[in-house]
Amino acid sequence: MIRGDLSMLDTAPLQHRLLDHADHYARWSGLAIGLVVAQELSTLGHIEFEQRVVFCLTAFGLCAVAGVLLADALTLRPQDAVRTASLAPRLVRDHVPPRMGPLIALQGVSLVALLVITAATASVDGDRMFITGKAVDITCNGMRATLGPWPGLYYSLPMFGALAIATPTCVWALRRIAHGPGEEQQRRDRAWAVTGAWGLLVSSQQLYAVLMISVALTETGCAGTLGAITFWVFYPLALLNLFTVVWSLVTVVAPRAVEDEDGAPGDE
């Protein structure tokens, strides 16, 4: 009889520990599944290389977002006694990274603007509408030249689709976290993980779009103005996005690994 009671006492903490770490497993599983899906998409031989890369980045980013959202749903809420809430309202901006949050939001806006510009400047072929936006036409030394690959609609439509799905979902999750129950540190970890997942999707897509533009602009003999734009604008932007990709990946894996001393103070 005593042995049975001890068994029950040992089982309950074990189950609680498993549930307590379910959010970690969900985030890591999202990244792992994203890698598997990206690997499968990379083997689609009937699709050209540039499009396969777009599909891989989009699938990996969406899986990362899905894993973080699942982790947030599995996060245990405190079961302690009722605590008195502060009169100060909780704001989303108080739970996202104070430095990287605005930067990632700015990168999201700039990504949309960049994709709109490249879609508008891409060459249009009325006879082949399904491949419109793969290149851009320029005039070089009085002669017409076609540069590519260019992130027009042919490549950017999957990016737009991923942003249309992930952005409102992540915004809803951040509002839910900010106004929902939980300790301040727990809400912060959840909000930073969501921000990192969205940042991973945005920065990886923008990094590839910038690389496509840089390759297209530097392969022409008219290196003057186009070369200067590439050197002073797109190369630094690529480095910035590479930094954001690394930061976002670390944040999804372990939000507390990027602890910020200027984090929002607790409100409880």
TrEMBL record:
It comes from the Bacteria. The chain crosses the membrane at residues 52-74, 103-124, 153-174, 195-217, 229-250. Keywords: Membrane, Transmembrane, Transmembrane helix. This is Uncharacterized protein.
